[in-house]
Design brief:
The protein is an all-alpha fold. Helix content is about 75%, strand content about 0%. A two-stranded antiparallel ribbon has the order 1-2. Helix 2 packs antiparallel against helix 3, helix 3 runs antiparallel to helix 4 and helix 11 packs antiparallel against helix 12. The chain is globular. The chain starts with a helix and ends with a helix. The mean pLDDT is about 90.
């Protein structure tokens, strides 16, 4: 299966399934009603991640069954992503206890990581535990950042598509390139319905598996090529920084970290400038700054020790400038 065919198939299948799901969701009243923390004012169809998940599963199955593509150690991740999609859809309809959600994320993250692990010593056990906690955090991080129209889907598309290009030029395994293209294509097909003003939300059904797949493909890429791992960190830095800063700020204020809130930087910017400008700002940050830096990281055009300050400085400057926004 060619790379262009995989991307096109994923985009078209996702767009068609999303359009079909939107009709069903409106008919069945699978909707998100605004509350005091919401960034939207109208009742909007939700759980669109189910359509994304079906498109992703269909494309992966076709690539493996008819294209003969080997996806290496991602078998566990595909199963975990499917279960997260279903869990998220249930949570979208009837919110589950936070403790159960966290427990499920840990277990499914362990399932996704299992093919990557070799437990031969105590140190391997420590690394495995750190990996499970980190992947669980990435799953929830992506969920935290899915608070306004388009932002999580945009981040997923840009990160996956850029990583696919970098993996191709770094001669990474074909399976990694294809799964990244399929991931980008399925969320791009959905983004047309989620771009502000959104007609459909992905809900937890879409944000949780996206976090898992971004995390696990980043791990696979870094195992194949450390330079690709650095590029992945550069591309994911907006979400990592926003969530890290917000949680640290809430912890310092003595607030519960598991309690729902709308204090993220992107949410405060949204209240000031509107959703479209925030999404375009994220896209501009990637196009002007982060994607060129990701290429520099992948092709070792800059010393690795310079990447962190160069990547973080403009974002930390903006966070410091906007931290008092309400």
């Amino acid at each position: 299966m060619s790379y262009l065919a995989a991307l096109t198939m994923a985009l078209l299948l996702s767009a068609m399934l999303t359009a079909l799901y939107l009709r069903v969701a409106r008919y069945r009243a699978w909707v998100d009603t605004p509350n005091h923390r919401s960034a939207h004012d109208e009742v909007t169809a939700s759980s669109g991640g189910l359509a994304i998940g079906l498109a992703f599963a269909g494309c992966i199955s076709l690539a493996a069954g008819y294209g003969g593509v080997a996806f290496g150690p991602l078998g566990g991740a595909f199963c975990a992503a499917a279960l997260l999609c279903l869990l998220g859809a249930i949570d979208d309809r009837r919110p589950l206890p936070v403790s159960f959600r966290l427990f499920a994320c840990v277990i499914l993250s362990a399932l996704a990581l299992y093919p990557f692990l070799r437990i031969e010593s105590t140190l391997d056990v420590v690394f495995a535990l750190v990996g499970v906690v980190t992947l669980s955090w990435l799953v929830n991080l992506n969920n935290f950042m899915d608070g306004i129209d388009g932002i999580a889907a945009t981040q997923c598309v840009v990160t996956a598509l850029t990583m696919a290009v970098l993996a191709y030029f770094r001669s990474a395994e074909a399976g990694l390139v294809l799964v990244l293209l399929i991931l980008a294509g399925t969320y791009l097909g959905f983004l047309g319905y989620n771009w502000p003003p959104a007609r459909l939300f992905m809900g937890d059904a879409g944000s949780l598996p996206a976090g898992l797949m971004l995390g696990i493909t980043g791990l696979w890429a870094s195992r194949l090529d450390a330079a690709l791992g650095l590029a992945w960190l550069v591309l994911m830095s907006p979400f990592i920084l926003d969530t890290g800063f917000t949680l640290a700020r809430r912890a310092a204020a003595g607030k519960r970290l598991t309690e729902g809130h709308s204090e993220h930087i992107y949410q405060r910017c949204n209240r000031r400038w509107g959703t479209l400008r925030v999404d375009l700002g994220l896209l501009a940050l990637h196009l002007v700054w982060l994607i060129p830096l990701a290429f520099a990281a992948a092709f070792e055009l800059l010393p690795s020790w310079t990447l962190a300050p160069v990547t973080l400085f403009p974002q930390l400057f903006l966070i410091a400038k906007w931290r008092r926004l309400q």
